[in-house]
Amino acid sequence: MASVHFTPEQLNERFEFAQKFKNIVFGLIGIGIALILVGALFFGDSHEEATDSHAAITTEQVSNAVPVADTPDDHGEGGHAHHHRGTEGRLVSNFLLCSLYFLTISMGALFFLAVHQIGNGGWHTAIRRVPEAMTTYLPVAAVGFVALFFFMDVIYEWLILPPGVDALIDTKRAFLNRPAFIIRNVIFFGIWIGAALWLRRLSIRQDTEGGLSHFHLSTRISAAFVFLFAFSYSLFAVDWIKSLEPHWFSTIFGVYVFAGSFQSAMIVTGFLLYFLKRQGYMSYVNDSHFHDVFKYAFGFSVFWGYIFVAQYLLIWYSNIPEEGIYYVKRYLVDSHDYVGGNFIWLFWTNVLCCFLIPFLGFMMRDAKRDPRWFIPVGLVVLYGHWQDLFVMIMPGAMGTEWGIGLIEVGFFSVFAGLFLYVVFNGLSKANLAAANHPYMEESLHHTTGPI
Q: What single DSSP character describes residue 64?
């Protein structure tokens, strides 16, 4: 392979966050706000129509399907108390959904940086400023979750029900109580934001100061972060998603959420790289970099599928009501409180969007390098991650009152615009190439071989 050389200008370029891109971002936010307002105005009518169209599933259908949960009482063990959430509940649920969606992508990017730092990975050095910019969204995400602290009692059953009403929830109140919840999550965000900002600052300082001191310190920080991440991210998923259904038990839920986080983070990284290349930046990024980014997306489609099946099978063969209730609410009905039959197409298309399509789509070697292929497949994955979180959240948060309409599209548009603004702004604050990184030369000549 012929030697490739890049000029100092190429290695010191900086993204210009032009006004045309700002207009697009602000347009997304403005359109999203308008859709939310219109959707909220007409939510009541659309919900009544959706409620009338809900199909009943007979007890015989339930008894012939697995996993089978005992018919729950209103507040009994394995049960579920239905509370009317209305428009407020739908707004809060979608705020939570989109907050989680873009936070998980940012956290996947931070994990990507930390793992490659402690693993002495060299190939990613030329593209590392893209995931670094994605991590700058974490402080903004934290603000959104702080706002959610004030609206949790709209959708979280363990806050809605007073002590003494539900015996099973009462056994968990030492963990599920507002002060402990807030303290835990403040600590989590402190760890994540601190690690992200520290690693980015060291990376940028290395551009001007050179040497290896910043590199070695980054390795130590990354090692500590990965250790803390394993615990904090799992507990975070339990707090914000799993506790929406406090009667349900699962020991691998945090890993399941992480699988979708990392897969989607790799797709967004690849899309941003392609966007920058199309704008004339990062000429040193080659097909092999794209190949490895989307190879991660391919690999984690398998990992997501494995965790999806593992969680289902563990619950299926044990056939315990406290565990099976999660699946009953998503594709079965054994009480008027559950309209799981209406989630069934969402539940199973998760397998298509998060596993089957990316697995087959990214399996071919050239598919990971060809934008005509990786863009449509990547868009399916990003939609699949949103839908996956939707199915995790809405049965517990909204029960029978869920829907997909203007409110959902509007919230996604607002958060997408906010995320892109923060990331583009982060890209404009530092050189796009970590020129003085010790592995930069290796990354500039990175190759996975010809197609």
A: T
Cα 373 to Cα 381: distance, rounded to the nearest angstrom: 13
| Poorest-pLDDT segment among 83-87, 105-109, 400-404 | 83-87
* Burial group, residue 182, by CB count within 10 angstroms (0-12, 13-18, 19+): middle
**How far is the C-alpha of 345 from the C-alpha of 51, rounded, in Å?**
17
Residue 164 main-chain phi, psi, to 5 deg: 95, -10
Q: Are 368 and 267 in contact (CB under 8 A)?
A: no
Q: Taking the model in full, what pTM does it have?
A: 0.90
Q: How far is CA 437 from CA 126, 379, 429, in A?
A: 9, 32, 18
The DSSP annotation for 219-261 comes to HHHHHHHHHHHHHHHHHHHHHHTGGGSTT---SSHHHHHHHHH
Question: In this structure, what token pair is assigned to residue 11?
Answer: 């290695």
Is 127 in contact with 92 (CB distance < 8 Å)? no
Provide the pLDDT confidence category of residue 280 given band limits of 50, 70 and 90: very high
Q: What is the pLDDT of residues 112-122, one digit of tens each?
A: 999 999 999 99
